[in-house]
Amino acid sequence: MRNIWDMVHGLKPAMIMMMVQTGFAGLNVFYKLAANDGMSLKVLIAYRSMFAAAFILPLALLVERKSRPKLTWVVLFQAFLCGLLGGSLAQNLYVESLYLTSATFIAAMTNLVPAITLLLAISFGMERLRFGTLAGKAKVMGTLMGIGGAMILTFYKGVEIDIWSTHIDLLHNGQLSGSHVTSPDKLLGSLLALANCLSYALWLIVQAKMSATYPCYLSSTALMNVMGSIQAVVYALCTERDWSRWKLGWNIRLLTVAYSGIVPSGVMVVLIAWCVRLKGPLYVSIFNPVLVILVAIAGSLILNEKLHLGSILGTMLIICGLYLVLWGKGKDVKRTTRLVPLKSYGQSESLEDVITSTTNNDSNNSNNINTNSNGNMTCITANSLQTVDEEI
After folding, report:
1. Of 85, 96, 301, 356, which residue is 20 to 30 A from 383 by alpha carbon distance?
2. Where is the EamA domain (predicted)?
3. What are the sequence ranges of the domains in the chain?
Protein backbone atom coordinates (compact mmCIF):
# COMPACT_ATOMS: atom_id res chain seq x y z
CA MET A 1 0.00 0.00 0.00
CA ARG A 2 2.90 2.29 0.78
CA ASN A 3 4.40 1.69 -2.67
CA ILE A 4 1.09 2.49 -4.36
CA TRP A 5 0.79 5.73 -2.39
CA ASP A 6 4.37 6.71 -3.32
CA MET A 7 3.64 6.01 -6.98
CA VAL A 8 0.48 8.15 -6.89
CA HIS A 9 2.39 10.91 -5.10
CA GLY A 10 5.08 10.80 -7.78
CA LEU A 11 2.47 11.09 -10.53
CA LYS A 12 0.74 14.04 -8.84
CA PRO A 13 2.57 16.78 -10.83
CA ALA A 14 1.78 15.06 -14.13
CA MET A 15 -1.88 14.63 -13.18
CA ILE A 16 -2.12 18.27 -12.12
CA MET A 17 -0.58 19.46 -15.39
CA MET A 18 -3.08 17.34 -17.31
CA MET A 19 -5.84 19.06 -15.31
CA VAL A 20 -4.33 22.44 -16.19
CA GLN A 21 -4.28 21.68 -19.90
CA THR A 22 -7.83 20.33 -19.71
CA GLY A 23 -8.90 23.58 -18.07
CA PHE A 24 -7.30 25.62 -20.83
CA ALA A 25 -8.91 23.41 -23.47
CA GLY A 26 -12.28 24.14 -21.88
CA LEU A 27 -11.48 27.85 -22.14
CA ASN A 28 -11.16 27.59 -25.93
CA VAL A 29 -14.48 25.78 -26.18
CA PHE A 30 -16.25 28.36 -23.97
CA TYR A 31 -14.81 31.20 -26.05
CA LYS A 32 -16.18 29.63 -29.20
CA LEU A 33 -19.63 29.07 -27.66
CA ALA A 34 -19.84 32.64 -26.33
CA ALA A 35 -18.87 34.10 -29.70
CA ASN A 36 -21.43 31.82 -31.36
CA ASP A 37 -24.07 33.20 -28.98
CA GLY A 38 -23.38 36.68 -30.32
CA MET A 39 -21.39 38.00 -27.36
CA SER A 40 -19.00 40.81 -28.15
CA LEU A 41 -15.47 39.49 -27.85
CA LYS A 42 -14.21 42.82 -26.52
CA VAL A 43 -16.85 42.77 -23.77
CA LEU A 44 -15.95 39.15 -23.01
CA ILE A 45 -12.29 40.06 -22.42
CA ALA A 46 -13.29 43.06 -20.30
CA TYR A 47 -15.48 40.91 -18.04
CA ARG A 48 -12.86 38.19 -17.88
CA SER A 49 -10.19 40.64 -16.75
CA MET A 50 -12.50 42.02 -14.06
CA PHE A 51 -13.35 38.54 -12.79
CA ALA A 52 -9.64 37.63 -12.73
CA ALA A 53 -8.68 40.77 -10.83
CA ALA A 54 -11.53 40.29 -8.33
CA PHE A 55 -10.39 36.71 -7.73
CA ILE A 56 -6.62 37.14 -7.39
CA LEU A 57 -6.44 40.54 -5.63
CA PRO A 58 -7.85 39.37 -2.25
CA LEU A 59 -5.52 36.36 -2.31
CA ALA A 60 -2.51 38.59 -2.90
CA LEU A 61 -3.51 41.00 -0.14
CA LEU A 62 -4.01 38.15 2.31
CA VAL A 63 -1.14 35.78 1.51
CA GLU A 64 1.63 38.30 0.81
CA ARG A 65 0.65 41.05 3.24
CA LYS A 66 3.94 40.70 5.18
CA SER A 67 6.39 39.81 2.40
CA ARG A 68 5.32 42.33 -0.25
CA PRO A 69 8.07 44.84 -1.15
CA LYS A 70 7.47 48.54 -1.61
CA LEU A 71 5.45 49.51 -4.67
CA THR A 72 7.35 51.93 -6.91
CA TRP A 73 6.53 53.80 -10.10
CA VAL A 74 8.84 51.48 -12.03
CA VAL A 75 6.89 48.45 -10.82
CA LEU A 76 3.60 50.14 -11.71
CA PHE A 77 4.87 50.89 -15.22
CA GLN A 78 6.04 47.30 -15.62
CA ALA A 79 2.65 46.10 -14.40
CA PHE A 80 0.99 48.37 -16.96
CA LEU A 81 3.08 46.84 -19.75
CA CYS A 82 2.40 43.33 -18.45
CA GLY A 83 -1.32 44.07 -18.33
CA LEU A 84 -1.20 45.32 -21.91
CA LEU A 85 1.11 42.78 -23.54
CA GLY A 86 0.03 39.73 -21.56
CA GLY A 87 -3.51 40.81 -20.78
CA SER A 88 -5.81 43.12 -22.71
CA LEU A 89 -3.94 43.22 -26.04
CA ALA A 90 -2.90 39.56 -26.15
CA GLN A 91 -6.32 38.29 -25.10
CA ASN A 92 -8.22 40.45 -27.61
CA LEU A 93 -5.93 39.25 -30.38
CA TYR A 94 -6.43 35.67 -29.18
CA VAL A 95 -10.23 35.68 -29.20
CA GLU A 96 -10.44 37.50 -32.54
CA SER A 97 -8.15 34.89 -34.08
CA LEU A 98 -10.19 32.13 -32.48
CA TYR A 99 -13.36 33.59 -33.99
CA LEU A 100 -11.85 33.77 -37.49
CA THR A 101 -10.18 30.35 -37.45
CA SER A 102 -10.79 27.45 -35.07
CA ALA A 103 -9.99 26.37 -31.53
CA THR A 104 -7.52 23.76 -32.80
CA PHE A 105 -5.72 26.28 -35.02
CA ILE A 106 -5.14 28.89 -32.32
CA ALA A 107 -4.11 26.22 -29.81
CA ALA A 108 -1.45 24.99 -32.23
CA MET A 109 -0.19 28.49 -33.01
CA THR A 110 0.39 29.33 -29.34
CA ASN A 111 3.20 26.76 -29.32
CA LEU A 112 5.23 29.29 -31.33
CA VAL A 113 5.65 31.46 -28.23
CA PRO A 114 8.94 29.83 -27.03
CA ALA A 115 10.54 30.25 -30.47
CA ILE A 116 9.43 33.88 -30.76
CA THR A 117 10.56 34.55 -27.19
CA LEU A 118 13.96 33.07 -28.03
CA LEU A 119 14.35 35.39 -31.03
CA LEU A 120 13.36 38.42 -28.95
CA ALA A 121 15.68 37.42 -26.10
CA ILE A 122 18.61 37.12 -28.51
CA SER A 123 17.73 40.53 -30.00
CA PHE A 124 17.60 42.13 -26.54
CA GLY A 125 20.84 40.50 -25.43
CA MET A 126 19.15 38.35 -22.78
CA GLU A 127 20.08 35.09 -24.47
CA ARG A 128 23.23 33.74 -26.12
CA LEU A 129 22.61 31.56 -29.15
CA ARG A 130 25.92 29.61 -29.20
CA PHE A 131 25.26 28.28 -32.69
CA GLY A 132 28.45 26.24 -32.60
CA THR A 133 27.01 23.99 -29.89
CA LEU A 134 24.44 21.23 -30.34
CA ALA A 135 22.01 23.10 -28.10
CA GLY A 136 22.29 26.25 -30.20
CA LYS A 137 21.67 24.34 -33.41
CA ALA A 138 18.66 22.62 -31.84
CA LYS A 139 17.14 25.98 -30.88
CA VAL A 140 17.63 27.37 -34.38
CA MET A 141 16.22 24.23 -35.99
CA GLY A 142 13.27 24.22 -33.59
CA THR A 143 12.50 27.85 -34.38
CA LEU A 144 12.60 27.21 -38.13
CA MET A 145 10.39 24.13 -37.74
CA GLY A 146 7.87 26.16 -35.76
CA ILE A 147 7.75 28.86 -38.42
CA GLY A 148 7.39 26.22 -41.14
CA GLY A 149 4.57 24.53 -39.25
CA ALA A 150 2.75 27.85 -38.85
CA MET A 151 3.01 28.47 -42.61
CA ILE A 152 1.61 25.01 -43.36
CA LEU A 153 -1.25 25.60 -40.93
CA THR A 154 -2.08 28.88 -42.66
CA PHE A 155 -1.63 28.17 -46.35
CA TYR A 156 -2.13 24.41 -46.80
CA LYS A 157 -5.43 22.71 -46.12
CA GLY A 158 -5.13 19.24 -47.64
CA VAL A 159 -7.66 16.45 -47.54
CA GLU A 160 -10.18 16.14 -44.72
CA ILE A 161 -9.36 13.59 -42.04
CA ASP A 162 -12.57 12.03 -40.74
CA ILE A 163 -11.53 10.10 -37.62
CA TRP A 164 -14.92 10.00 -35.92
CA SER A 165 -18.29 11.65 -36.14
CA THR A 166 -20.64 12.22 -33.21
CA HIS A 167 -23.13 14.40 -35.12
CA ILE A 168 -22.98 16.85 -32.18
CA ASP A 169 -22.61 20.50 -33.10
CA LEU A 170 -23.11 23.04 -30.32
CA LEU A 171 -22.70 25.81 -32.91
CA HIS A 172 -25.50 24.58 -35.16
CA ASN A 173 -27.87 27.49 -34.57
CA GLY A 174 -25.50 30.35 -33.90
CA GLN A 175 -23.40 32.90 -35.70
CA LEU A 176 -20.52 30.47 -36.28
CA SER A 177 -22.61 27.66 -37.72
CA GLY A 178 -21.58 26.21 -41.00
CA SER A 179 -18.37 26.85 -42.89
CA HIS A 180 -18.01 30.53 -42.05
CA VAL A 181 -14.24 30.74 -42.42
CA THR A 182 -13.12 31.99 -45.82
CA SER A 183 -9.53 32.24 -47.06
CA PRO A 184 -9.19 35.98 -46.27
CA ASP A 185 -10.65 35.35 -42.81
CA LYS A 186 -8.17 32.54 -42.14
CA LEU A 187 -5.25 34.67 -43.33
CA LEU A 188 -6.34 37.53 -41.06
CA GLY A 189 -6.88 35.07 -38.21
CA SER A 190 -3.38 33.69 -38.75
CA LEU A 191 -1.87 37.17 -38.62
CA LEU A 192 -3.79 37.91 -35.43
CA ALA A 193 -2.57 34.62 -33.93
CA LEU A 194 1.04 35.54 -34.74
CA ALA A 195 0.49 39.01 -33.27
CA ASN A 196 -0.88 37.35 -30.14
CA CYS A 197 2.23 35.16 -29.87
CA LEU A 198 4.47 38.22 -30.36
CA SER A 199 2.57 40.19 -27.70
CA TYR A 200 2.75 37.27 -25.30
CA ALA A 201 6.48 36.79 -25.95
CA LEU A 202 7.10 40.48 -25.25
CA TRP A 203 5.14 40.08 -22.02
CA LEU A 204 7.47 37.26 -20.98
CA ILE A 205 10.45 39.54 -21.43
CA VAL A 206 8.89 42.38 -19.43
CA GLN A 207 7.56 40.02 -16.78
CA ALA A 208 11.04 38.56 -16.25
CA LYS A 209 12.31 42.07 -15.47
CA MET A 210 9.36 42.76 -13.18
CA SER A 211 9.95 39.53 -11.25
CA ALA A 212 13.49 40.64 -10.47
CA THR A 213 12.32 43.91 -8.90
CA TYR A 214 9.01 42.71 -7.43
CA PRO A 215 9.39 39.02 -6.47
CA CYS A 216 5.84 38.33 -5.24
CA TYR A 217 4.01 36.21 -7.77
CA LEU A 218 0.50 36.72 -6.39
CA SER A 219 0.88 40.48 -5.99
CA SER A 220 2.49 40.96 -9.39
CA THR A 221 -0.21 38.82 -11.01
CA ALA A 222 -2.87 40.88 -9.22
CA LEU A 223 -1.25 44.13 -10.41
CA MET A 224 -1.13 42.83 -13.97
CA ASN A 225 -4.78 41.74 -13.85
CA VAL A 226 -5.91 45.09 -12.42
CA MET A 227 -4.01 47.01 -15.11
CA GLY A 228 -5.26 44.65 -17.81
CA SER A 229 -8.86 44.95 -16.63
CA ILE A 230 -8.71 48.77 -16.74
CA GLN A 231 -7.28 48.67 -20.26
CA ALA A 232 -9.75 46.05 -21.48
CA VAL A 233 -12.75 47.91 -20.03
CA VAL A 234 -11.67 51.24 -21.53
CA TYR A 235 -11.12 49.60 -24.92
CA ALA A 236 -14.49 47.83 -24.78
CA LEU A 237 -16.32 51.01 -23.71
CA CYS A 238 -14.79 52.91 -26.64
CA THR A 239 -15.76 50.28 -29.20
CA GLU A 240 -19.00 48.86 -27.78
CA ARG A 241 -21.43 51.71 -27.08
CA ASP A 242 -24.52 49.49 -27.13
CA TRP A 243 -25.24 48.63 -23.48
CA SER A 244 -27.37 45.66 -24.47
CA ARG A 245 -24.19 43.88 -25.52
CA TRP A 246 -22.88 44.17 -21.96
CA LYS A 247 -25.75 42.18 -20.47
CA LEU A 248 -24.83 38.71 -19.28
CA GLY A 249 -27.84 36.91 -17.83
CA TRP A 250 -27.94 33.31 -16.65
CA ASN A 251 -26.57 31.86 -19.88
CA ILE A 252 -23.40 30.78 -21.65
CA ARG A 253 -22.05 34.32 -21.52
CA LEU A 254 -21.98 34.51 -17.73
CA LEU A 255 -20.57 30.98 -17.53
CA THR A 256 -17.81 31.86 -19.99
CA VAL A 257 -16.62 35.04 -18.27
CA ALA A 258 -16.82 33.44 -14.81
CA TYR A 259 -14.93 30.33 -15.93
CA SER A 260 -12.28 32.25 -17.87
CA GLY A 261 -11.68 34.71 -15.06
CA ILE A 262 -11.62 32.28 -12.14
CA VAL A 263 -10.25 29.00 -13.50
CA PRO A 264 -7.43 29.87 -15.97
CA SER A 265 -6.55 33.21 -14.34
CA GLY A 266 -6.94 32.07 -10.75
CA VAL A 267 -6.90 28.36 -9.98
CA MET A 268 -4.48 27.49 -12.79
CA VAL A 269 -2.01 30.09 -11.54
CA VAL A 270 -1.71 28.28 -8.22
CA LEU A 271 -1.44 24.83 -9.82
CA ILE A 272 1.22 25.91 -12.31
CA ALA A 273 3.15 27.69 -9.54
CA TRP A 274 3.16 24.52 -7.45
CA CYS A 275 4.35 22.35 -10.35
CA VAL A 276 7.10 24.77 -11.35
CA ARG A 277 8.40 24.93 -7.78
CA LEU A 278 8.41 21.15 -7.50
CA LYS A 279 9.62 20.09 -10.96
CA GLY A 280 11.02 23.18 -12.64
CA PRO A 281 10.00 25.20 -15.70
CA LEU A 282 10.95 22.76 -18.45
CA TYR A 283 8.83 20.01 -16.91
CA VAL A 284 5.77 22.24 -17.10
CA SER A 285 6.58 23.31 -20.67
CA ILE A 286 6.48 19.79 -22.08
CA PHE A 287 2.74 19.56 -21.33
CA ASN A 288 1.82 22.53 -23.55
CA PRO A 289 1.27 20.47 -26.74
CA VAL A 290 -1.29 18.38 -24.83
CA LEU A 291 -3.61 21.36 -25.22
CA VAL A 292 -3.61 20.99 -29.00
CA ILE A 293 -4.67 17.34 -28.75
CA LEU A 294 -7.41 18.06 -26.21
CA VAL A 295 -8.78 21.02 -28.19
CA ALA A 296 -8.71 19.03 -31.44
CA ILE A 297 -10.68 16.21 -29.79
CA ALA A 298 -13.18 18.59 -28.19
CA GLY A 299 -13.57 20.60 -31.38
CA SER A 300 -14.25 17.57 -33.54
CA LEU A 301 -16.60 15.99 -30.98
CA ILE A 302 -18.83 18.89 -29.96
CA LEU A 303 -18.06 21.83 -32.27
CA ASN A 304 -18.09 19.94 -35.57
CA GLU A 305 -14.63 21.22 -36.49
CA LYS A 306 -13.03 19.37 -39.37
CA LEU A 307 -9.46 18.11 -39.23
CA HIS A 308 -7.38 18.41 -42.40
CA LEU A 309 -4.02 17.00 -43.40
CA GLY A 310 -2.43 20.47 -43.38
CA SER A 311 -3.57 21.08 -39.81
CA ILE A 312 -2.09 17.79 -38.61
CA LEU A 313 1.24 18.26 -40.43
CA GLY A 314 1.58 21.88 -39.31
CA THR A 315 0.75 21.03 -35.70
CA MET A 316 3.28 18.19 -35.66
CA LEU A 317 6.02 20.47 -36.99
CA ILE A 318 5.23 23.17 -34.41
CA ILE A 319 5.24 20.64 -31.55
CA CYS A 320 8.53 19.07 -32.72
CA GLY A 321 10.03 22.55 -33.01
CA LEU A 322 8.82 23.38 -29.50
CA TYR A 323 10.50 20.32 -28.01
CA LEU A 324 13.74 21.08 -29.87
CA VAL A 325 13.80 24.61 -28.47
CA LEU A 326 13.05 23.32 -24.95
CA TRP A 327 15.71 20.63 -25.26
CA GLY A 328 18.30 23.19 -26.33
CA LYS A 329 17.21 25.49 -23.51
CA GLY A 330 17.57 22.65 -21.00
CA LYS A 331 21.08 21.88 -22.25
CA ASP A 332 22.04 25.55 -21.88
CA VAL A 333 20.75 25.67 -18.31
CA LYS A 334 22.70 22.52 -17.37
CA ARG A 335 25.84 23.77 -19.10
CA THR A 336 25.67 27.11 -17.29
CA THR A 337 25.05 25.42 -13.95
CA ARG A 338 28.20 23.35 -14.38
CA LEU A 339 30.15 26.61 -14.57
CA VAL A 340 29.00 27.54 -11.06
CA PRO A 341 31.89 26.52 -8.72
CA LEU A 342 31.20 24.28 -5.75
CA LYS A 343 32.14 25.38 -2.23
CA SER A 344 34.92 22.82 -1.93
CA TYR A 345 36.33 19.81 -3.73
CA GLY A 346 34.98 17.58 -0.99
CA GLN A 347 31.40 18.74 -1.35
CA SER A 348 29.10 15.73 -1.44
CA GLU A 349 26.36 17.20 -3.61
CA SER A 350 26.08 15.64 -7.03
CA LEU A 351 25.73 17.70 -10.18
CA GLU A 352 22.08 16.72 -10.39
CA ASP A 353 21.49 18.04 -6.88
CA VAL A 354 23.14 21.34 -7.79
CA ILE A 355 20.95 21.70 -10.89
CA THR A 356 17.80 20.86 -8.94
CA SER A 357 18.72 23.27 -6.16
CA THR A 358 19.41 26.06 -8.63
CA THR A 359 16.06 25.58 -10.32
CA ASN A 360 14.18 25.47 -7.04
CA ASN A 361 15.90 28.60 -5.77
CA ASP A 362 14.88 30.46 -8.91
CA SER A 363 11.34 29.21 -8.38
CA ASN A 364 11.28 30.52 -4.85
CA ASN A 365 12.27 33.91 -6.20
CA SER A 366 9.01 33.76 -8.17
CA ASN A 367 10.67 34.42 -11.51
CA ASN A 368 8.84 31.58 -13.17
CA ILE A 369 5.35 31.34 -11.84
CA ASN A 370 3.54 34.44 -12.92
CA THR A 371 1.05 33.33 -15.50
CA ASN A 372 -1.25 34.92 -17.93
CA SER A 373 -4.68 33.54 -18.57
CA ASN A 374 -4.38 33.88 -22.31
CA GLY A 375 -3.79 30.19 -22.92
CA ASN A 376 -1.51 27.39 -22.02
CA MET A 377 1.82 29.16 -22.29
CA THR A 378 3.00 30.59 -18.94
CA CYS A 379 6.12 32.64 -18.28
CA ILE A 380 8.15 29.44 -18.11
CA THR A 381 10.18 30.52 -21.10
CA ALA A 382 10.89 33.85 -19.48
CA ASN A 383 12.11 32.09 -16.36
CA SER A 384 14.45 29.90 -18.37
CA LEU A 385 15.84 32.93 -20.17
CA GLN A 386 16.21 34.85 -16.93
CA THR A 387 17.84 31.92 -15.15
CA VAL A 388 20.52 31.60 -17.81
CA ASP A 389 21.00 35.35 -17.95
CA GLU A 390 21.45 35.61 -14.19
CA GLU A 391 23.82 32.67 -13.95
CA ILE A 392 25.99 33.91 -16.80
Report:
1. 96
2. 18-153, 188-326
3. 18-391
Rounded CA separation 244/83 (Å): 27
State how far Cα 197 lies from the chain centre.
Answer: 9
* pTM, entire model: 0.72
The H or E element containing residue 249 is none
Closest C-alpha to 385, from 307, 323, 328: 328
Nearest to 151 by CA among 187, 180, 98: 187
Distances (CA, A) of 301 to 38, 106, 295, 354: 22, 17, 10, 46
Task: Assign 3-class secondary structure to 303-344.
Answer: ECCCEEHHHHHHHHHHHHHHHHHHHHHHHHHHHHHHCCCCCC
> How many angstroms separate the CA atoms of 111 and 127, rounded?
19
Radius of gyration of the chain (CA): 21
60-113: pLDDT as tens digits: 899 888 888 888 999 999 999 999 998 899 899 999 998 888 887 888 888 787
